[in-house]
Amino acid sequence: MSYARAALAVVAAFLLQTAILPLTVGEGVTPDFLLATAAAAGLLGGPGPAIGFGLVTGLVQDSFSGGLLGMNGFSKPLVVFLAARGRGRPPLDTRAGIPLLLLFAAAADLAILWALGEVAGFTAIPARELGAAAFGIPITVIYGLLVVRFLRPRPGGY
Amino acid sequence: MPGKRGHGILLGIVLAANFLGLTFQVRSGINFPIRDGLAAVFGGGQSLVAGSARAVWSWAETVGEAHEMRLARDELRDRVARLEWELTVQRGMLERARGFTSLDAAAMDLGEPVSGEIVGVSASPLDRTVTVNRGARHGIERDAPVMAASGLLGRIVAVGPGVSQVELLSASTAAVAVITSSSRTRGVVRAAAEGGASGYRLHFVPVGQRIAIGEEVISSGLDRLYPKGLLVGRVSAIHEGAGLLLEIAVEPAVDFDTLERVFVLPRRDDFGPAPEPDAAP
Asked: Is B100 left (phi over 0), alpha (psi -120 to 50) or beta?
């Protein structure tokens, strides 16, 4: 995996999430493009890059979300790391494992954020936003697959 | 490269740092200054992309709205044309009933018109015809009367499978038998011959007839070609000529330059005035 391409994908996901998403996707559906990008990078790069990309994307999300800094910074590295670890275990090491791990990452991220808000007592996430994020999971997975395709190393040429 | 253990430690540090940071923020109410720094780094690109995306989106919305408005306009135009048509039919029925007998009103139905659009005009300025996108396939027959929403337009002179040609009343070869609405004066309307004018002339009206300016001129049905009661135009000028006939100018009811939609009536052999009540066997 090229880190330059991965960084480019993070920037693109950020701009897509913050600038274009409000114009295109209807209210009540909020995919997480940054998580999808971090998870894709983690799935291809392994647990180490997964923590790094998860942390960066999480902190960027926190910085631009108006909530507490560290909510996504906590959840994203964790779920992306777990997805990357899962990638090395059968049967998730097959081609079909990628969408499943992306699905896991998206769902687990929501669960952790909910737990941080409700159980740990940090900022509680409104049910409406939680629902919108849940409805956005399929889009998150599809976008993650596209990013995986973008980041996957190309076979060498002549 | 750190091993599994190294990754675990790294993750633990990251999670612990974030958790402690969260706790600190909640307890102290202080936000980390990193938020401002990141906003400064990403804010420019974000606003640039958002601005561009909004501009594109706004443009797309404008195009979509313009398309919808065009559709709505066409629909309204069709509705107005249809209403004008119904008004014309009602006027024709009234005229027939007024001139003859109300008992024949039921027989005055002009039939269901075939609505069409003008898709071409004649290339020659001398040939006053237009092409309509309805033909034999739609039940159009030669000599069928053609109306615009505002009045009588002409007749079909050529029929193809999908299109037909309409000879306009403004053509020098066209004529229609008429009657004026108030004075009940009969005559024949033809295109004004002089100067290529688009108006009509009402012929064969003897001097002494009391015709008023603005009076409606409607088809009389005596030519057995056009049904009775269709508005042809309005009297616009009256002059006493040198002979025994009046020279009467008629302003066409139809604006030939702005025609879009026409109605082709079914050709019927019984067009014309209903029989007089006392003409019963």
From this structure: alpha
